[in-house]
Amino acid sequence: MRSLVALVAVTAATVPASASVSAGETYGDYSRFGARSAGQYWTGGQAAGQWTWKPLSSTTSEISWGDPAKWPPTYAEKFVRTGGWLMLDGWRDNGTYYRVRVTKEQIGDASCGSLRTLATSGLQHYVQWDIPSRAYCLKAWGTITEESSGKVIRFGHTQIWSPPAPCSNRYLTGQTCIKQWESWWDNKDDRDGPITRKLDRDQLIARGKGMAFDIHQYFPKTWQAEARSYWTW
What we know:
It is a single chain. By secondary structure, this protein is mostly beta strands. Helix content is 2%, strand content 57%. The protein has one helix at 27-31, and strands at residues 37-43, 46-55, 60-66, 76-82, 85-93, 96-108, 116-119, 124-128, 136-146, 152-167, 175-186, 196-206, 210-219, 223-232. It is globular and about 45 Å long.
């Protein structure tokens, strides 16, 4: 899973001081989930990647991530809005679909304490649609089925979502962002073995602009990129 990250013991994650949350603010106001929106993020003086949302209905949208020089990519993640949640159904890549289904989910506080059961089957609860005033933790365990072959991958995903706070990068200043910290684990490389950590990172998502405002990757190697441009298509 290229752009998402996921599970097991949460390492220390910095939670920014929250800005006031405007009444009725949603994840869609920040991510631009429901619009034909796009953005490009840079590192080292050149484009590092690009994303686009493609709405499929009033409640479903796909986000593609890839190299802007080789656009469009074969990769796109599918999200569905259900009640108060945005749910991850899976993603498509190289002509096949990878279906995500959870076997256990939990929700807790900003330090991943006070965990309680959220769900035990179905699509993954990815983020709350209405933005709460406090940070919260989501943990998910489950399976990813490669529909073209029937092969199954086991995964774990931990996220900490933090409320709006002021944010700036080297290209864009004076913004407001929500923050996602995530850690992704799976056994894709050894499907008979245990899940192992594949990715840890932070992502800032800017109000009215969209994804990848600032990305700090910590594992498997340190890396950073910042949004330089946003547009609609």
